[in-house]
């Protein structure tokens, strides 16, 4: 009976340590994946700040999605009133040309999908972190130019459909979204 109990104890101990080793191996694999993802995100975005790259990983932003982050303001302002109409879609697609997105690219496919189905809410947070990291690598004049360019293109998409009943050029929802984009440039890295 004692031998039987000892055998069971050893078996349970072996199972415990096997599970623990498997968990540690999985955690190491995940850390390696995260580090690889950060390197890929750095390569695509040019952002060096490890905290911002880590935030992308936490938000589950893949390198393919990161390549399309520059277009998030255009997509989100198009969705601000709950739907994307043909004029807004056309305005977004016209603006993508300036971002070097080819029609047969992953970024274009993602953009097309975002125009059909609203992107997840985390994309605004991801874009905000993207802008913060990008600002760190730009001088003051370049940051101002970036902000002006983003706001100009986002406002063009917002005004594309003529707003509510074509009375107002930009709807209150679109104005609210534009204000969120402006606020992204209030981060310390964008003000220095």
Describe this entry's structure for a reader.
The protein has 192 residues and is an all-alpha fold. The protein has one domain (3-191). It is 73% helix and 0% strand. The chain is built from ten helices and no strands. The chain is elongated and about 85 Å long. The model has no long low-confidence stretch (mean pLDDT 79).
What series of H and E elements makes up the topology? HHHHHHHHHH
Number of domains: 1
Strand fraction equals under 5%
Shape: elongated
Helix content: over 70%
Termini, distance in Å?
75 Å
Mean pLDDT: 79
Number of strands: 0
Largest sheet: none
Number of helices: 10
Fill in the keyword field for this structure.
single chain; 192 residues; 10 helices; 0% strand; elongated
Task: Detail the topology: elements first, then pairings.
Layout: H1 2-45, H2 50-58, H3 63-66, H4 72-79, H5 86-96, H6 106-116, H7 122-136, H8 140-160, H9 172-184, H10 188-191
Summarize this, please?
This protein is mainly α and 192 residues long.
């Amino acid at each position: 009976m004692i031998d039987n109990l000892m055998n069971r104890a050893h078996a349970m101990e072996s199972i415990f340590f096997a599970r623990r080793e498997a968990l540690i191996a999985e955690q190491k694999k995940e850390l390696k994946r995260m580090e690889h993802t950060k390197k890929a995100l750095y390569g695509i975005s040019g952002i060096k700040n490890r905290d911002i790259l880590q935030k992308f990983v936490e938000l589950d932003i893949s390198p393919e999605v990161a390549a399309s982050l520059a277009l998030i303001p255009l997509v989100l302002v198009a969705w601000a009133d709950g739907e994307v109409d043909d004029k807004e879609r056309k305005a977004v697609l016209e603006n993508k040309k300036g971002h070097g997105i080819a029609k047969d690219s992953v970024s274009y496919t993602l953009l097309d999908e975002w125009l059909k189905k609203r992107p997840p809410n985390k994309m605004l947070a991801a874009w905000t972190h993207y802008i913060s990291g990008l600002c760190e690598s730009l001088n003051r004049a370049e940051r101002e130019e970036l902000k002006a360019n983003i706001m100009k293109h986002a406002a063009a998409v917002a005004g594309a459909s003529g707003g509510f009943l074509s009375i107002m050029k930009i709807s209150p929802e679109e104005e609210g979204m534009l204000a969120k984009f402006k606020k992204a440039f209030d981060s310390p890295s964008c003000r220095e």
